[in-house]
């Protein structure tokens, strides 16, 4: 059975779907949910679902990302995860952190990578006149929103879409794609 740790920064809706998916004959189980925000709603949801949690507030570390990440790693490694899932974790990770979990760290991004890396993906897709948007699950590498693509889901852009309406439809797809890609990834380890 593979052990999965999940990092969140906000409400944790993708984390909830991942945890809910890891039952029955699934080859993995959630062992820990962490956040850079002690007030993150995802921590409350994880606790309610019976998954241990931790928080390392990034703010006291200032610009010392290595010290912040060392504390993250200390908590994560104590849970001995085989897979680390980023689920709305809104901190850019250093190459050293990524190397520590290389080959076993997944992320979901709300665009059809390689398009629209970074933030404000839905607004940028609309501004560019795209006819479709979507989401991507990929392995994390040192380059932001890069790395081998494991799967994508597409969503048609409709007339009158706003970044918010598009984001809501993409999120529905994220909630299906990420659990499916985690299962496939866990089966391949």
In short:
With 189 residues, the chain is an alpha/beta fold.
Task: Give me the secondary-structure topology.
Elements: E1 2-8, H1 13-21, E2 28-35, H2 41-48, E3 53-55, H3 65-78, E4 83-86, H4 95-100, E5 105-109, H5 121-127, E6 132-139, E7 149-156, H6 163-188
Parallel strand pairs: 1-2, 1-4, 2-3, 4-5
Antiparallel strand pairs: 5-6, 6-7
Helix pairs in contact: 1-6, 5-6
Overview of this structure, please?
Helices cover 37% and strands 23% of the residues. The protein has helices at 13-21, 41-48, 65-78, 95-100, 121-127, 163-188; strands at residues 2-8, 28-35, 53-55, 83-86, 105-109, 132-139, 149-156. 40% of the residues are buried. The chain has 189 residues and is of the alpha/beta class. It has a single domain, classed as 3-Layer(aba) Sandwich (Rossmann fold).
Mean pLDDT: 97
User: By helix and strand content, what is the structural category?
Assistant: alpha/beta
Q: Spell out the helices and strands N to C.
A: EHEHEHEHEHEEH
The CATH level-2 architecture is identified as 3-Layer(aba) Sandwich
The global form is globular
How would you write the strand order of the largest sheet?
3-2-1-4-5-6-7
Domain unit count: 1
> Share of helix among residues?
25-40%
Q: Which range does the strand content fall in?
A: 15-25%
Q: What low-confidence regions span 5 or more consecutive residues with pLDDT below 50?
A: none
């Amino acid at each position: 059975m593979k052990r999965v740790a999940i990092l969140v920064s906000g409400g944790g809706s993708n984390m909830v779907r991942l945890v809910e998916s890891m039952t029955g004959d699934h080859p993995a189980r959630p062992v820990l949910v962490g956040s850079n925000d002690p007030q993150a709603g995802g921590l409350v949801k994880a606790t309610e679902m019976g998954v241990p949690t931790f928080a390392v507030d990034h703010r006291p570390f200032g610009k010392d990302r290595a010290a912040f990440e060392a504390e993250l790693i200390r908590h994560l490694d104590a849970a001995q995860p085989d897979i680390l899932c980023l689920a709305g974790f809104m901190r850019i990770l250093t190459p050293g952190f990524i190397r520590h979990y290389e080959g076993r760290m997944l992320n979901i991004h709300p665009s059809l990578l390689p398009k629209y890396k970074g933030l404000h993906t839905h607004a940028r897709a609309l501004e560019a006149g795209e006819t479709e948007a979507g989401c991507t699950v990929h392995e994390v590498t040192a380059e932001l929103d890069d790395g081998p693509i494991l799967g994508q889901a597409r969503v048609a852009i409709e007339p009158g879409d706003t970044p918010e309406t598009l984001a809501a439809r993409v999120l529905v797809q994220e909630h299906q794609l990420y659990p499916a890609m985690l299962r496939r990834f866990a089966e391949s380890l």
